[in-house]
Amino acid sequence: MAINVIKPGLSTTVQDLGRPGYYHLGIPTSGGMDTLSLAAANLLVGNDAGAAVLEAVFLGPELEFTADAMVAVTGADMPPKVDGDERAGWTAFKVKKGQVLSFGFLRAGARAYIAVSGGIDVPVVLGSRSTYTLGALGGFKGRKLEAGDALPVGAGHAVAEGRSLPDALRRKPGLPAELRMLPGLYWHRITEAAGKTFFDDTWKVAPEADRIGYRFKAGHPLEFVARDQPFGAGSDPSNIVDACYPYGSVQVPGGTEPIVLHRDAVSGGGYFMLGTVVSADMDLIGQLQPHTPTRFVKVTMDEAIQARHDRKAVFDAIGAALV
Amino acid sequence: MTTRYSFGGDEHIFVECDEEMSLEAFFKGMSITSALREAKIRGVTEICPANASFQVRFDPDVISPDAMMAELKALEAAAQAAPSTLQTRIIEVPVLYNDPWTHETLMRFRERHQDPTSTDIEYTARINNLDGVDGFVKAHSGAPWFVSMVGFVAGLPFLYQMVDRKRQIQSPKYLRPRTDTPRLTVGHGGCFACIYSVRGAGGYQMFGITPMPIYDPNQTVPYLRDFMCLFSPGDIVKWKPIDRAEYDHTVAEVDAGRWMPRIAPVTFSLSEFQKDIDGTNARIMEALNGH
Prior knowledge:
The complex is a heterodimer of chains A (323) and B (291).
Chain A: E1 2-7, E2 12-15, H1 35-44, E3 53-57, E4 62-65, E5 69-77, E6 80-82, E7 85-86, E8 93-95, E9 100-103, E10 108-116, E11 150-152, E12 177-183, H2 192-200, E13 203-209, E14 213-217, E15 239-244, E16 249-251, E17 259-261, E18 268-271, E19 273-277, H3 282-285, E20 293-298, H4 301-321
Parallel strand pairs in A: 12-20
Antiparallel strand pairs in A: 1-4, 1-11, 2-3, 3-10, 4-9, 5-8, 5-10, 6-7, 6-9, 12-19, 13-14, 13-20, 14-17, 15-18, 16-17, 16-19
Chain B: E1 4-8, E2 12-16, H1 23-39, E3 44-49, E4 53-58, H2 65-81, E5 85-97, H3 100-108, H4 120-127, H5 132-142, E6 145-150, E7 157-161, E8 185-189, E9 192-195, E10 205-209, E11 236-241, H6 244-255, E12 263-269, H7 270-275, H8 277-289
Parallel strand pairs in B: 5-11
Antiparallel strand pairs in B: 1-2, 2-4, 3-4, 5-10, 5-12, 6-7, 6-11, 7-9, 8-9, 8-10
Helix pairs in contact in B: 1-2, 4-5
């Protein structure tokens, strides 16, 4: 079967759990920005947790189905509609041949995950179906969806309509959003006072927030420790000799607006980084809207590992609830 | 040269071989990352060499952060004893310097440049005391360059000029980054050259363009069928100045699937290079020219 794209939404891409292993060549992992929601959507419709789904940001697509399928929408609160009738999120529902799946306005979060039984069956490139638009790689022709596209869908397993994820297992981000961060990397480049304001300030998600990275504004500019710039680093005090950027690393070009790199990260460059958001909080970033007040919370490695275990426990609980 | 280790969250270790760029710092990173690749430590998922640093991604559910750190520090000690030779290859990259496409682009973004009244080449030639465009092309293409990092975007090489520091071309990045750079632009920022693998934003000075694709996600270019990215860290590049006729001819041959780059295997020894830069470069060039 296929899904015909009537309207593509703002920026809808095919994503799975990503393409690790090629970062040393500048090819980022890509994949869903909120992997917990992605996995839950898949499990609801009987797919493997890592099947390819559609990730729709801020504005949903309009899709015509050419065969019956089971569908689930998770992540952002963006109500799905079948031929105009609203369906519940985080719950499997049937879309019949010829029916149209559309979406109401975004009520919370940023990215909805649309899983279809059988998964979106685009070719596997370097081990993944995820779209990396900057490199025109993977997904549907290496780009976001456009009107007129016909998305291939794989063969699914029969699952019951109405399967639903218990409310306690659905993400509800708090306000302000809190991103736990392990200081490090080039933390020593800023003064002690700057380090304090960085964690004390409430930042706001900037409009420049996408799959490459999330920019934050409205905090105090950071003051640098004076030094003679090393050979090859460039003249700005925020410059370093171009180096790799970890996923989740927080760079602050010019010391003004922190950027947290995400799944389509540029793999390296010449800006200092003052630490890294813990892996457990990366999914949360994918659901932040522009202007969301956000705080960075300093943690130790032990706390980062504990957060990682807690997240895995949620992941396992979702799996157990949807056996 | 002091090595500095830092955790990048719970999944990365970042290792700075030196604060400043040098071939020695790059080699230190290469030898540790090569040893790490060979050690096949369980839980290591990505090994990314960079210019004067490198990064390792690991799965802390398989190997604890402290154990991973200890493994790396042990490898650093072992790598220091290893001879600094590299089995690599030299790749000739044809360049049309001062081409019309980067020229059109640099004129469009002139107000973001340090010197709006001259071109990027003229400006860089002047601040490096080179004799105009011709002097610049001679200096830029005279000696080979090391691929010291691949990244930023897919398949983009950073290159380090294989001459002593006082002869290295240096230039600042644009005052504000451009929103557009032609695909396959040969650029320069700080002490690094690069080739933009895809069209997009960029802040490096623009000197020319190569007709040679270096990244092909569809893998239809014959020499990119095995893998979509041409360059790996450790490759050596020799720029070959070409004229517009040769550029057009090469583009036509590439489009017809007939063109192949000139590539030759070569052994590079850091100690030999340190003793005799020009002699070592001449020997590397002989490998390319088949003598």
